[in-house]
């Protein structure tokens, strides 16, 4: 299996040219720091949609200790397609309030239809937030790490729709660790088991600290001496998993990406 970390580099101006400039700066960092790095010919791509539940009509927020109304806590649905994770599947990550999260996968060709159902037929329940995409991402093999970098393009649906912008850049770093496993249960279309009781096999723990050190060292090497301007960097690390369950590895990757791409609100 592979362990991975994700770095979201913000683009305060949301200007596309500024975002492309940051991408080029980081690519120079990769090619200069890892002189034996191999640039992969096939680009990677990503598409992401976020939906948030609608506040019920007549909802009265509870009052906090300070006498002020407490903010409403939302539920979310995420639709994520990441070509390097599965070229033909889209992952649906549901985060209902006070209930167990679930992740399922559907065929990529059904992605737009699923989003349309949420947006139009379930509009009383779900509100579209934003759409993000990476069209022509770049990948490198650099020693023990695989590095994927791409510029995010953002669009909004509904009354707030407008021009395309770029909220930032994503740098995804993965490194092999533990044993490989042929189980690809996340691509079967069934939801994952929250308690993990479906399998009765020996599990080997991943050396998380070592894997995280490799990822962080790789990122530090890439950005060393590079001027990122007013950009802020947010780091997300994959949750610990066991080496014999490919489905759990994919689930952890989906959660990490959705947490990074949900943005605020």
Under CATH, the topology can be stated as Hypothetical Protein Pfu-838710-001
The number of distinct β-strands equals 11
Tally of alpha and pi helices: 4
Helix content: 10-25%
List SSEs in N-to-C order: EHEEEEEHEEEEHEH
User: What is the CATH H-level superfamily?
Assistant: Hypothetical Protein Pfu-838710-001
Query: What ranges have pLDDT less than 50 throughout 5 or more consecutive residues?
Result: 181-186, 188-203
| Principal-axis shape | globular
Distance between the termini: 33 Å
What's the number of structural domains? Answer: 1
% residues in beta strands: 25-35%
Average of pLDDT: 86
Give a quick account of the main beta sheet: strands, pairing sense, barrel closure.
Answer: 11 strands, antiparallel
State the CATH class: Mainly Beta
Q: Give the second-level CATH assignment, the architecture.
A: Beta Barrel
> What class would the helix/strand composition place it in?
alpha+beta
What is the rounded Rg? Answer: 20 Å
Subcellular location: Nucleus
Keywords: Activator, Nucleus, Transcription, Transcription regulation
Protein name: Mediator of RNA polymerase II transcription subunit 20
Subunit structure: Component of the Mediator complex.
Write up what this structure looks like.
The longest helix is centred in the N-terminal third of the chain and has 18 residues, at 16-33. The protein has 265 residues and is of the alpha+beta class. It has one domain: Hypothetical Protein Pfu-838710-001 (Beta Barrel). The two termini are 33 Å apart. Strands 1, 2, 3, 4, 5, 6, 7, 8, 9, 10 and 11 form an eleven-stranded antiparallel β-sheet that branches. It contains four helices and eleven strands. Helix content is 23%, strand content 31%. It comes from Alternaria alternata (Alternaria rot fungus). Belongs to the Mediator complex subunit 20 family. GO terms for molecular function: transcription coregulator activity. Keywords: Activator, Nucleus, Transcription, Transcription regulation.
């Amino acid at each position: 299996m592979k362990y991975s970390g994700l770095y979201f580099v913000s683009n305060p101006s949301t200007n596309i040219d500024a975002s492309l400039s940051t991408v080029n700066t980081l690519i120079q960092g990769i090619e200069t720091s890892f002189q034996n790095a191999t640039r992969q010919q096939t680009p990677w791509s990503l598409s992401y949609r976020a939906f948030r539940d609608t506040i019920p009509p007549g909802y009265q927020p509870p009052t906090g200790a300070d006498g002020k109304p407490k903010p409403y806590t939302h539920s979310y649905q995420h639709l994520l397609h990441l070509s390097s994770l599965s070229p033909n599947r889209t992952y649906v990550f549901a985060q209902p309030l006070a209930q167990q999260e679930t992740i399922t996968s559907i065929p990529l060709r059904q992605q737009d239809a699923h989003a349309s159902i949420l947006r139009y037929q379930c509009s009383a329940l779900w509100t579209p937030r934003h759409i993000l995409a990476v069209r022509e991402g770049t990948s490198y093999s650099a020693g023990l790490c695989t590095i994927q970098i791409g510029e995010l393009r953002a669009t909004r649906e509904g009354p707030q729709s407008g021009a395309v912008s770029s909220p930032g850049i994503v740098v995804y770093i993965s490194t092999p660790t533990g044993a490989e496993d042929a189980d690809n249960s996340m691509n079967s279309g069934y939801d994952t088991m929250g308690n993990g009781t479906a399998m009765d096999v020996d599990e080997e723990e991943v050396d998380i600290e070592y894997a995280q050190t490799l990822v962080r060292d790789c990122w530090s090497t890439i950005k060393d001496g590079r001027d990122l301007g007013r950009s802020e960097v947010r780091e997300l690390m994959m949750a610990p998993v066991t080496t014999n369950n490919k489905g759990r590895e994919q689930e952890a990757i989906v959660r990490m990406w959705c947490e990074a791409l949900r943005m605020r609100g």
